[in-house]
Specification:
Helices cover about 25% and strands about 25% of the residues.
Length: about 190
């Protein structure tokens, strides 16, 4: 992602906004637009740790059922327990600090995240984001998500694009030790 603001802690992307995989081989602008076809602009949102937790509770509420609002994360990690009732699943949220270490989010601290404008305005049922939008805590950056992604890939270079499972969304519930593979939907 393009570095827009040093305050930005992490990026989230609703799963329904990701429309295609990127197969091995050259990555063209056309392929990038197939992945992110909606032309969403990026937005920052200022949220407290409690609000971030509510957002991720909404993200995993239907798990393991498919939900287009499931949030994919960069710059942090979310641990949740699918054996618990919806609304009580998030165990912990972490961000990556300047040393590359995971630091647990604090409930009363305010954090800035970046996402697409659709999600920032409350799309996919994110009432907590809609509230922040209505209170003026959302700032539209005017940069298209697909173009920001393209620039990120260019900065990485074709030999440095990571393809491994990073463990950014972890189900610590009953199936965690049984399955640690993204195809099982447990460890992303």
């Amino acid at each position: 992602m393009q570095q827009n603001d040093e305050k930005v802690l992490m990026a989230v992307q609703n799963g329904g906004g990701i429309r295609a995989p990127i197969e091995a081989g050259p990555i063209t602008n056309g392929k990038i637009i197939q992945v992110l076809p909606f032309g969403n602009t990026l937005s920052t949102i200022d949220l407290t740790g409690i609000e971030l937790k509510k957002a991720f509770e909404h993200s995993v509420h239907a798990y393991p059922e498919e939900f287009g609002g499931f949030l994919h994360i960069a710059g942090g990690k979310v641990e949740f327990d699918s054996t618990k009732a919806a609304g009580k699943r998030v165990v912990a949220i972490y961000f990556i600090d300047e040393n590359g270490d995971y630091v647990k989010i604090k409930d009363i601290e305010t954090y800035t995240i970046v996402t697409n404008y659709f999600t920032a305005k409350g799309g996919d049922g994110y009432d907590i984001f809609q509230k922040a939008y209505e209170e003026g805590r959302v700032k539209e950056l005017g940069k298209f998500d697909w173009d920001n992604f393209r620039q990120h890939l260019q900065r990485l270079g074709s030999a440095n694009i990571p393809t491994n499972t990073e463990g950014r969304i972890i189900d610590v519930g009953k199936n965690y030790n049984k399955y640690k593979h993204p195809d099982k939907g447990i460890n992303y």
